[in-house]
Design goal:
With 123 residues, the chain is mainly beta. The protein starts with 11 loop residues before the first strand and ends with a strand.
Length: 123
């Protein structure tokens, strides 16, 4: 799915191109094509949920960010206007887009979580 028209202001679950055959699946994305921003920094986190689901407090994002669960699962509680909404990612072909300025609240990670974090350019 092409995300050139994805608003940089709206939190969204994004489905990425995925090819599946007898060998498994391949998912991918390109900045400014499948993501609504140019990629600046890419990293990953693992082991956050050792011993079961782990919660962590987050803060306000300084740059647009996409998170993808390469393995396991993660959930974020996001403050949206007058309510808190929970987003869960648990498949490598789906990412959670978090615009700059998003107040991320609590994050929970499964014991086996491997989370890819893709950030856009900052200030």
């Amino acid at each position: 799915m092409d995300h050139k028209n994805q608003s940089l202001d709206n939190i969204a679950l994004m489905e990425f191109p995925t090819f599946i055959d007898e060998r498994g699946s391949l998912s991918f994305f390109e900045g400014l094509k499948h993501l609504p921003f140019a990629m600046k920094k890419i990293g990953w986190t693992s082991g956050a949920g050792l011993g079961g689901w782990t919660e962590e407090e987050n803060g306000r994002l300084k740059v647009p960010t996409v998170v993808v669960a390469l393995k396991g699962a993660a959930k974020w509680e996001i403050q949206e206007t007058a309510s808190v909404k929970t987003y869960k990612i648990d498949r490598p072909g789906v990412g959670l887009f978090l615009p700059k300025g998003t107040e991320t609240g609590k994050a929970q990670f499964s014991e086996d979580a491997l989370i890819l974090v893709v950030r856009g350019a900052g200030e």
